[in-house]
Specification:
homodimer, about 375 residues, alpha/beta, 6-stranded mixed β-sheet, two-stranded antiparallel ribbon, 12 helices, globular, hydrolase (chains A, B), glycoprotein (chains A, B), EC 3.4.16.- (chains A, B)
């Protein structure tokens, strides 16, 4: 409801309006609230919440998809894509790897999930590279000084744990009215009535308070009933979950997926300092691929506006930036995000690329 | 008329409107079109245009100021500041050095130009550091690839000439509908009727076509007559001038000014890739000063909006960034630019800092 879905929640928190740039306009989309314990996804076994992790999330989602296709067999064999964002940098490649592994093990079920590619926005892929990219991003965008950059880089070049401590220091020093997920966005004023902070910087259509409208709307008992959801306190994140496993780096998984010839699309809003595009570059460098299509601007619309830049690599990896977009690209730049998604489909008419996208966004 | 002045030219190119954030609201300002040959500044000797350069510009401006103060002696002894932008990174320190040198030579004229500080926006200070800063800025803002950055940096780390060739290459590769002076600005459509390119990125009040309105307005014979200007083809830049001298670096001049205890304020719109704030950081590093006030956000208004970041150095140097502003800061962020200018005056009420600013913008 904030990103790629067909509806947006209005300021009144009770009514909806159409998202002109919904991804449902170009693909059938399954929205899955994952892992179990967030959103409307639940388990009857308390243990499930205490044994959550990357692996159980991938396994659960895989079982969900198999069951879903059994229930709607007309979708079996359709080209299928997985999409996510942020920590989706873990969820999406791992689910893809789970699907491909099962396809390899049992080739007779191969067509049951006809995975054709993955698409992840502002992905969290590698703890070290993300921290390094964050420091470099903050420096190159004027958020930290030369001295802070040098100190953090010197102190923190050793291991993940070191980095974490330093990044915490860094954040402590730089708290101000800047949203780390979109460093030029307006700020949502807290209070009984949410008001959007008028920003001189990027007064775009994106309403920074929209996550609050969604929260209120989805907790309306009438809405929960209409959705056939179990009555619950809907929340997109929860501290109730204990996390058992999370690899420090997704590089091995991504390498394996590329070896399996799975097209991988990574895209990054370039105003995000949390999972910055610079970090994604570093991780891509670690993949050791060659450039097949050099860095070039890509165009959003008939006014020839530059939507960002894009580069192609051996094995089908594509990396694209989305200009002036924060962490949640389809919130900040819905038109550009849809074009990016759609262009992939267009590009397939003749050359390589993805086709008939079915996206499964993860939170 | 585009930056700090009291009026803006309207779209009709014939009428004016008030600039609510004019620097004339907080200081008396002399606007000098410099060097001779640009704007309404002229010479009766053709030779002057063939012997132009940094030195003659400083000398001419110094003579102009002396004569001006003789004509308006009530301003003698007033606190005086010099301001400029871009290549003003050469003009302003050199004029300041000329004034201080004359003051030292003849202490009796010391009060005739009571220089209290200089203020330069997005300054061009050092050819090598500017080129290095530009490459790093373009990379960290997603305009060039890892590969282009590595290649340019490798090829071009030697001397100024090398850098220039590489930067030319780089520009050749990256031409697109992005304004290098404000990489998130809209684009002005060329044509018989100028229309502002609608941009999704930063639809602020700044009209990217405004330089054309100014051009037409100042070439209106009635306007030229009303200004008591000699009829001319007004232009803010000209290729008629041969440039005889320009030091590769202003670091020695800046060092000398700081030794003379002259307050130096440098500020940078952080959306500018031409004289990027990263380049100014590199040049400041070459000055070898210590930090006295660590990097911190500065606040524009009662809504606590962050206007940018600021850092203080030994000797009185201050460096401030202006958030989401391009090369011409007062055009892109007039409120923030005025606050920055005004805050300096406020800061003097009690501590150090500048007071009673008189700015002389150079083109």
């Amino acid at each position: 409801m904030m990103e790629v879905g067909p509806f947006r929640v209005n300021k009144d928190k009770r009514t909806l309006s159409e998202n002109m740039h919904a991804w449902t306009k170009v693909a059938n989309v399954i929205f899955l609230e994952s892992p179990v314990g967030v959103g409307f996804s639940y388990s009857n076994k308390t243990l499930d919440f205490h044994l959550s992790g990357d692996k159980s999330t991938a396994d659960d989602t895989f079982v969900f998809l198999l069951n879903w296709l059994e229930r709607f067999p007309e979708y079996k064999g359709r080209p299928f894509y997985i999409s996510g964002e942020s920590y989706g940098g873990h969820y999406v490649p791992q689910l893809a790897a789970t699907i491909l592994s099962h396809n390899l093990e049992n080739s007779s079920t191969r067509t049951s999930i006809n995975l054709q590619g993955i698409l992840v926005g502002n992905p969290y892929l590698d703890a070290n590279m993300n921290a390094k990219g964050e420091v470099d991003y903050l420096w190159s965008h004027g958020m930290i000084s030369d001295e802070a950059w040098a100190s953090i880089t010197k102190k923190c070049s050793l291991d993940q744990r070191g980095y974490k401590a330093c990044v915490t220091d860094m954040h402590g020093a730089d708290q101000s009215n800047i949203d780390p997920y979109d460093i030029y966005a307006s700020v949502c004023l807290e209070g009984p009535i949410e008001t959007q902070y008028p920003s001189r910087y990027t007064p775009r259509s994106y309403d920074i308070c929209s996550d609050r409208y969604v929260y209120v709307y989805l907790n309306d008992p009438r809405v929960q009933k209409a959705l056939h959801a179990r009555p619950t306190e809907w929340t997109h994140c929860t501290s109730e979950i204990a996390w058992m496993d999370a690899p420090a780096s997704m590089v091995p998984t991504l390498k394996w997926l590329i070896e399996q010839h799975l097209p991988v699309w990574l895209y990054s809003g370039d105003f995000d300092s949390v999972c910055p595009f610079i970090a994604t570059r570093y991780t891509i460098k670690d993949l050791g691929l060659n450039v097949t299509e050099p860095w070039r601007p890509w165009i959003v619309n008939e006014r020839d506006e530059v939507g960002g830049h894009v580069q192609g690599y051996t094995g089908g990896l594509v990396f694209a930036t989305v200009r002036a977009a924060g962490h949640a690209v389809p919130s900040h730049q819905p038109e550009a995000a849809l074009v990016l998604m759609h262009r992939k489909r267009l590009s397939s008419k003749g050359s390589s690329g993805l086709d008939g996208a079915v996206a499964v966004p993860t939170p």
